[in-house]
Each structure stands twice: as structure tokens, then as C-alpha cells.
């Protein structure tokens, strides 16, 4: 037991997490309750899959605000609870979580590594370097190498491998922006079509590394977008969170996304050509024939026309301008290449596994689902109020502990010292585990959890009382201290295990069937119940065995709590040996 305590305490100080993480009601913050609302006739859209997808989207939005300890979880069938700790702009948070997700298909104009580009280096050099160093070696993996093709599977488009072929990616950013400005269709390249149609013919052509100077006729809006792209650092969570705030569908924009290796990349994207509402259905599924995971998309009638138009234009371009970016809330979720004209059905294939394919399918579906959220309630707890509630909870716990100690001292006298030491060990273990579980599993100590810890004081004390009473029963039966301690333990052990099992079962059921703050109460109650078993078995029992050998307890001192006289034990009757009477014969007269 001592080794375990030392190890846990050492781990607590080694990680630097010396205090439990506090919940919103104790540390202060904002709690937002959202209720899902479906369009008439599409009530089935409010289901577990779509709600979990919404939770993921809202969580990314909140994290984009720079919040590291936000909690987003479903409550019941149609509610989502968002807990945002103090230090966050509550109005901005409400705006982020209450807005319906915006999903668009945008043509890719320029792509580069995610870090900020040095001012002295031209954007063309950065893009060309990215094309050489990254794209050429990873032609069969990653989002840029995902392959878009016809959904009926009759014709498979070959993937255009970026290599040494001529590419417009090497042009200056302002030059790349001219085409989408003049032609909103998304065609943004001046490369010859012959070179685009055959990568084999163009593979031997030398790749140009000299970028022309930025066009002097670029508008102020385009110049601002170029500067934003150059200075954008996609590795910064703060910068990523602000990208989608002012992006208009009809305007070019910059965005961030991850490649297959998980590295951030930054994009300049043209105006949105297809919206999320143009998707009728999307899902990730396993292609049995090819043995690979793909994402299939079915478009609405109007969406099919839009998608056919943009893919017809993109299929004639070179990388990266033959890619369309799937953008959700300002983040590029995928950027597959287009190698042929697509229409009502399409699929995205690439380096997918089951999780990534289903996740992308859910993202695409959510952009088309008739789901919106109404803000039911917003509760803001100030740090001062949270501190008051924490102090009130600690005072209540101290009062409960003091009452238990007074009862133990009055009734059990010397045995109370054993109970108090056991309570202190249990409290130390509980504290260290709560401190370690905060960063490990996101456990936050809220007010119901404090109540669970207070209730646990009584549960733990009850185990000691059961054991002490069993020992007293053995002494009343006439046994001395050491045999009484050993004979009482099997009977007390069974009672303690049954009692703690019932308490733990109740806590487990409560944790499974509830959500939100009530789970904090159930988790704390279950944790302290398990610790009660550990403390009684590995601390209280061994300590009692050791103290039974001392004169104070073993001799039944009046203040030990095990005095045979106070327990009503009567001393055994001392019987004297009976003397035999020898009969004497009467004398004869």
C-alpha cells in the first residue's frame, strides 16, 4: 500500500498535475445546451450518427477558439451540451457552436507547406518546392492523391501523378488568382491541354522553377489574399480557427488541411462551386472488388449539374489545379484529384481506412442533412461563484468528516485511530487519482463529484465499523485479542465485499444511464468504493493485525475500545476441587 501511494504521488508530481481539474461549476465558465431540430418530413435525421458527427464539428469549432479543456457531448437523443471553461469569450463561443456547419467544394488554385512563407521567398518558389519535395514522392497517398471517379465504376480514371511535368503551381499567387476572378467556373490554368491529357508525354519536359513576378494589376483584394496566404501558419491553432469566419462562398479564400502524413498544408481556393446541400447522400464503404475503402457521393439534381460543370473543367487542368477541396468550416477535409467529368454519382478513393472513410462520409452527409440547432439555455458561472461553490463543498466535506471522527472516537476510542488513518490513506489515494485522471481521461471535478466524495466518507467508515464489530463479537465470546482479529476477518470480509459491490453496481448503472454532471457523482462514488476495498484489505487489516500484538490493544486497555469489561464479557466461574467424603461406619455400642 505504501509503495502504491509513493508511486502515485511521484507520478502526480512528475507530470506536474498536482491539483484535480475543476469543472465549469467550480472553476467558472459557460454551459450551452443545444437542441437538434429537423426539417418537416425528415425527423429521422436526428439520430445517433448525425448527432455524433455534429459533436465532432462543434468540438473542432470550439478548439479553434484556443480552448483546450472544452467538453462537447450528447445528452439524450436530441441535445448537445457544450462546456467551455473560463477565459473564453462566451459570445464568440455561442456564435461558433450555434451556427450550422458550412460545407463547400472549392477548386484548388495553390497549395504549399503549412508553415508561414518567408517574405523574401516568392510564393511560386514555395509552391514549386512543395511540388518537388512532397507531391512527387507521394503520388499514391494522401488527400492530394485521392482519386475522384465515376460512381458507377464502369470507367476508372487513372491518378495523375505530380512529377516533372509542367505545372501552373509554380506561378506567382497573384497570377493564379486571375483566372478564378475572370472565370468563376474554377478553371485556373494556362497550361496546354495536350500536356494535361498525357502525363507520359509531359513527364520528360523540364519543370520550370522560375516564377514570374506578381502581376502589377492585381486588385487590392487579391493582394490581401496573397499576403494572407504568405503569412498563414497552419500549425497555429489560433490562425486556423479564424480562417472560416469571414469567408464568402462566392469569393476566393485561404484554408488549411492535413496531408496523409498528418502535416499541415495551406491552400488558396477559388469560389465555391458546389455546396453541402447539393449532396443527397455520402457514406464511407468497403469496395469488395478492389478491397479498399472509398467514399461515395450522390448529388441532387441541381447539384449533379454543378458538379458535372466543375469536374469537366478541373479534369483538363494539371496538379494542383485539377483538385477540388472539400471545405468544412474553413478546414480542408480532403482534396482529391479529378481525372474525368463526373455527374450525379462520384466516389473518392485513396489512402483510406475504415475510420477515415466513414468520418469523411459523415462530414459530407452532415453538410447536406436537414439538421439545425436551437440554443435552449446558456449558463455562465463566474470564477468567483465557482470558487464559492468549491469552498461550500469543501466545508460540507469537512463537517461530514468531523462528525464521523467524533462518532468513532466516542464509540470506538482507540480503534478510532485506526479508522482515521485508513480514512487519510483513502483520501490521499482519491486525491492523487483525481489529479492524474484529469489529463489522462479528461475527468473534471464538479460539484456532484464533490458530493460523491462526501458520500464515500460514510461508505468507507462503514467498512471499518463492520470489521470492528466482528472483532468485538469474537471477544464477547471469550477469545483473546489476537485470535479474535483473525477469526473476525473472514466474516467481516464477506460483508464488506457484498456492501461495496452493491454501492459500485449502483454507481456503474448511474454512470451508464445518465450524462453530464450526474456522471461526475457516479464516477467519484464508484472510484471511492473501489478504493475502500483496497484500503480495507491492504491497510486496515494488516495494521489491525500488528496492533493486536501491542499491550494497549492486546491487553484490552479501557481506552482501546476492546476492553472485555466494557463489552460485557463475564469472567469464567472458578470451580474448586470437590473433596471426597469417606463414609465412616457407625460404631457399635
Shape: elongated
Number of strands: 15
> Largest sheet, if any?
5 strands, mixed, barrel
Structural class: alpha+beta
Low-confidence stretches at least 5 residues in length (pLDDT < 50)? 120-217
Number of DSSP helical runs: 18
pLDDT averaged over residues = 74
Question: What distance lies between the first and last C-alpha atoms, to the nearest angstrom?
Answer: 90 Å
Query: What does the radius of gyration come to?
Result: 37 Å
Share of helix among residues?
A: 40-55%
Major beta sheet, strand line-up: 4-7-6-12-11
**Beta fraction of the residues?**
15-25%
Written overview of the protein:
By secondary structure, this protein is an alpha+beta fold. 47% of the residues lie in helices and 16% in strands. The chain has a five-stranded mixed barrel, surrounded by five helices. A five-stranded mixed β-sheet has the order 9-10-14-5-13. The termini are far apart.
Amino acid at each position: 500500500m505504501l509503495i502504491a501511494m509513493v508511486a502515485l504521488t511521484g507520478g502526480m508530481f512528475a507530470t506536474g498535475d498536482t491539483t484535480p481539474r475543476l469543472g465549469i461549476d467550480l472553476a467558472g465558465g459557460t454551459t450551452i445546451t443545444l437542441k437538434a431540430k429537423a426539417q418537416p418530413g425528415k425527423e429521422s435525421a436526428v439520430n445517433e450518427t448525425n448527432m455524433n458527427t455534429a459533436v465532432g464539428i462543434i468540438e473542432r469549432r470550439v478548439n479553434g477558439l484556443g480552448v483546450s479543456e472544452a467538453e462537447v457531448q450528447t445528452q439524450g437523443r436530441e441535445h448537445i451540451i457544450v462546456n467551455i471553461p473560463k477565459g473564453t469569450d462566451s459570445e464568440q463561443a455561442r456564435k461558433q457552436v450555434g451556427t450550422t456547419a458550412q460545407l463547400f467544394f472549392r477548386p484548388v488554385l495553390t497549395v504549399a507547406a503549412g508553415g508561414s512563407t518567408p517574405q523574401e521567398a516568392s510564393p511560386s518558389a514555395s509552391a514549386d518546392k512543395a511540388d518537388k519535395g512532397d507531391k512527387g514522392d507521394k503520388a499514391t497517398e494522401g488527400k492530394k492523391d485521392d482519386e475522384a471517379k465515376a460512381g458507377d465504376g464502369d470507367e476508372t480514371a487513372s491518378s495523375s501523378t505530380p512529377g516533372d511535368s509542367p505545372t501552373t503551381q509554380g506561378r506567382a499567387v497573384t497570377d493564379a488568382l486571375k483566372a478564378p476572378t475572370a472565370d468563376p467556373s474554377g478553371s485556373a490554368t494556362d497550361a496546354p491541354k495536350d500536356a494535361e491529357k498525357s502525363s507520359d508525354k509531359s513527364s520528360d519536359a523540364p519543370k520550370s522553377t522560375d516564377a514570374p513576378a506578381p502581376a502589377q494589376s492585381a486588385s487590392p483584394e487579391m493582394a490581401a489574399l496573397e499576403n494572407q496566404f504568405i503569412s498563414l501558419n497552419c500549425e497555429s491553432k489560433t490562425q486556423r480557427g479564424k480562417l472560416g469566419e469571414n469567408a464568402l462562398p462566392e469569393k476566393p479564400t485561404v484554408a488549411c488541411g492535413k496531408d496523409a502524413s498528418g502535416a499541415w498544408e495551406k491552400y488558396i481556393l477559388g469560389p465555391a462551386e458546389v455546396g453541402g446541400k447539393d449532396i443527397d447522400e455520402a457514406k464511407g464503404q468497403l469496395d469488395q472488388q478492389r478491397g479498399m475503402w472509398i467514399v461515395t457521393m450522390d448529388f441532387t439534381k441541381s447539384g449533379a449539374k454543378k458538379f458535372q460543370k466543375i469536374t469537366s473543367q478541373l479534369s483538363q487542368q494539371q496538379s494542383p489545379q485539377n483538385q477540388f477541396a472539400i471545405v468544412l468550416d474553413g478546414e480542408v477535409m480532403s482534396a482529391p484529384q479529378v481525372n474525368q467529368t463526373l455527374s450525379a454519382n462520384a466516389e473518392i478513393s485513396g489512402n483510406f481506412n475504415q475510420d477515415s472513410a466513414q468520418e469523411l462520409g459523415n462530414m459530407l452527409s452532415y453538410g447536406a442533412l436537414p439538421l439545425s440547432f436551437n440554443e435552449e439555455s446558456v449558463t455562465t458561472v463566474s470564477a468567483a461563484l465557482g470558487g464559492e461553490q468549491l469552498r461550500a463543498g469543501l466545508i460540507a466535506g469537512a463537517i461530514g468528516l468531523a462528525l464521523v471522527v467524533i462518532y468513532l472516537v466516542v464509540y470506538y476510542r482507540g480503534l478510532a485511530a485506526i479508522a482515521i488513518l485508513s480514512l487519510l490513506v483513502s483520501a490521499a489515494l482519491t486525491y492523487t487519482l483525481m489529479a492524474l485522471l484529469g489529463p489522462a481521461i479528461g475527468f473534471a471535478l464538479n460539484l456532484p463529484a464533490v458530493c460523491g466524495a462526501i458520500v464515500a466518507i460514510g461508505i468507507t467508515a462503514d467498512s471499518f465499523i463492520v470489521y470492528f464489530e466482528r472483532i468485538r463479537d469474537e471477544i464477547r465470546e471469550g477469545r483473546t485479542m489476537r485470535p479474535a482479529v483473525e477469526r473476525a476477518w473472514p466474516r467481516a470480509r464477506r460483508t464488506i465485499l457484498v456492501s461495496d459491490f452493491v454501492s459500485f453496481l449502483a454507481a456503474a448503472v448511474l454512470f451508464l444511464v445518465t450524462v453530464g454532471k450526474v456522471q461526475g457523482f457516479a464516477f467519484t462514488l464508484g472510484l471511492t468504493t473501489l478504493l475502500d476495498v483496497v484500503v480495507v484489505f491492504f491497510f486496515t487489516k494488516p495494521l489491525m493485525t500488528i496492533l493486536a500484538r501491542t499491550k494497549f490493544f492486546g491487553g484490552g486497555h479501557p481506552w482501546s475500545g476492546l476492553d472485555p469489561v466494557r463489552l460485557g464479557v463475564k469472567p469464567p466461574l472458578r470451580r474448586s476441587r470437590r473433596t471426597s467424603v469417606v463414609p465412616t461406619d457407625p460404631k457399635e455400642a
